[in-house]
Amino acid sequence: MKIGVIGAGAVGSASVFALIMRGRARHIVVLDRNHARAKAVATDMRYGAPLSGRVEVAAGDYGDLAGCGLVMITAGVNEKSGGATDRSDPAGRLRLLDTNAGVFRDIVPQIVAVAPEAVILVVTDPPDPLAELARKLAGHGRVLSTGTYLDSLRLRVHIGAALGVDPAAVEAQILGEHGTSEVFVWSGVRIAGVPLAAMLAERGIAPEAFRPGIEREVRYANIAIIDGNNASQYGIGMVSARLAEMVLRDERAAIPIGVHDERYGTTLSVPAIVGRSGAGEILVAPLDPEEQKALEQSAEALRQAVARIR
After folding, report:
1. Active-site annotation holds for 35
2. Which of 20, 119, 251, 285 matches a 20 to 30 Å C-alpha distance to 70?
3. Phi-psi group of 176: left, alpha or beta (phi > 0 → left; psi -120 to 50 → alpha; rest → beta)
């Protein structure tokens, strides 16, 4: 299967690298407004590609996206250059929206013109309102955002570390916006099927003492990474490659993912089944009243953001 990656910056390059290492794509086309950069990234990775599965990596133009099953968009201003790294700023990643919406208005019609059947995966921040915009520009619903999938993985990692268990044994989700209004679904956390509340009670740990530190680490993980490395790229690159794999293999994987949900009238992260056509069935998460209220508030924040760019 053929995949297109638009944007050869930090996140785009990390995504291409992860795609190669997973070995699921047969052809990867890299696009960037700076064609020399796209060519350099593709060439560099091409030399190491024989160590993975059979894959052809090349720089290209929009016409080379013909036949892609999935196109991921990583292009646009990032948090560092866009001034979205202030932990006290309630806008968070939404500060990047106006600039990156202009980028998407140029990119998405060109994708649809040559790859009308492709699933579009929005990676650029803020991914949820940009996916909603991409959906309108593309004229179809095969649009996903990376949403809170990475946030949910971060939550699993920190819960696992706090409890001394493998994150793979932790079931935990963050829903809503990939941003400041994200919703931690503590009521649904399980460790090998055991409710977190029961495990904490058995260990004599109060939930109000357990949760705040983890929420802080997860909520500001991207800023902490950017502080040390100028860009948060590797985690989202791995997530993007994994999502591409779910689509290309029609896995029907059930994950928290950014998708348009008619119940909320916008794109936000909810549990959904991901396969060849993007997100299929949306699942209804059993939330407690406070979590449900927070999710509705997150949806409202995203609706307001989308209204700003229409």
Report:
1. no
2. 285
3. left
